[in-house]
Description:
By secondary structure, the protein is an alpha+beta fold. It folds into three domains: about 5-115, no CATH class; about 145-270, Alpha-Beta Plaits (2-Layer Sandwich); about 275-365, Arc Repressor Mutant, subunit A, CATH 1.10.10. The protein has helices spanning about 20-30, 35-50, 55-70, 75, 80-130, 135-145, 170-185, 205-215, 235-260, 270-275, 280-290, 300-315, 320-325, 330-345, 350-365, and strands at about 155-160, 190-195, 195-200, 230, 235, 265. Strands 1, 2, 3, 4, 5 and 6 form a six-stranded mixed β-sheet that branches. Helix 2 (about 35-50) packs across helix 5 (about 80-130) and helix 3 packs antiparallel against helix 5. The longest helix has about 50 residues, at about 80-130. It starts with 18 loop residues before the first helix and ends in a 7-residue tail after the last helix.
Amino acid sequence: MTRAGTSAAAISTDFLDGYATLLSEVSATGRLPRRPELDAMRDLGERAAEAGHGLRELVGLFLGETRRVWGTLPGVARAAGAAERARTGDAVLGAVDAAIAALGEGHERAQRLSVRQEEAARREFVDDLLYGRSDLGRLAERAERFGLRLAHEHAVAVAEGEEPFDDVHPLARRVERELVGRFGDRDVLITTKEGRLICVGASSEGAVLDAFAACARRPDAGRPAASRVAIGRPHSGAGGVVRSYEEALSALDLAGQLQLAEPVLRAAELLVFPVLLRDRAAMADLVRTVLGPLTQARGGAGPLLETLTACAAAGYVNAEAARRLQVSVRTLSYRLDRIKFLTGYDPSDGLQRYSLETAAMGARLLGWPDKPL
């Protein structure tokens, strides 16, 4: 038999220094291990973990040493009868138990510290990645550690829900488990930021972000899921991740302002809105000119603006628009007539309808009529 058994062959016997002496003294006197001795065992367990040795490997080493020296322990060797041998054996086994427990505490302490350091490094990397605050060359090197190759194109998806998400939220853990199980941990990063769940995925794996959106929105065992997911466009490099992330956030903001019902938004499909808002003064002038007269209607401009939005969403099918507004088709027709009368723009005319729809979108983006232009 080897000194530590086959399971501990890779671990140095230097970790055993003083252990045989401890067992010898315990067997001779029956005393318990002293605090400094247990503290030394905790330090040994911590050093073993830092050296990359598993707890099972470490325990195997010490149990193997216990078996090796058992017959040579003075208290065991000179015991006169079975009762005395049992008392001595109990004392030694108690010391072994305390020593193993102390080794385990030290090993777990080192593991917890390592996990905290890894989490801190990961959080710092995520912050630098999403905000672009680090040197791009250094950021690319750090990204390799977390499975991202920033030379490739990546896109970012952002999910939000009724409650904030953090790294230990059940949804975040489930989404990461399912996506890594399906696509592996290369070029897929699941994290959280400011209460939102985020996925960074290589654009070559287009299905990653679609799978993220589906998984994030799927309830599990009654737990809340994400209510909306926005996906930015793919871009290359570390700066591309920042840009895609900002596009996804902007899509979520636009969805809130425009009260969009779609659960999955793609920044590529919403590019018209930044164009519309690029000249806010011109957009405000369009809203005032086209929709300003609606303020003269009974009840204000709000109901008629809502009517325009519902008609556009329903493809100007009056029955469907009336259903969405929860009004009769007759009431809907009356409102459309009022819009035509007050603004001079006819919703049934293609060009004039476009002006009304564009102005209505601008009104929602600018918060009109609740906010003055």
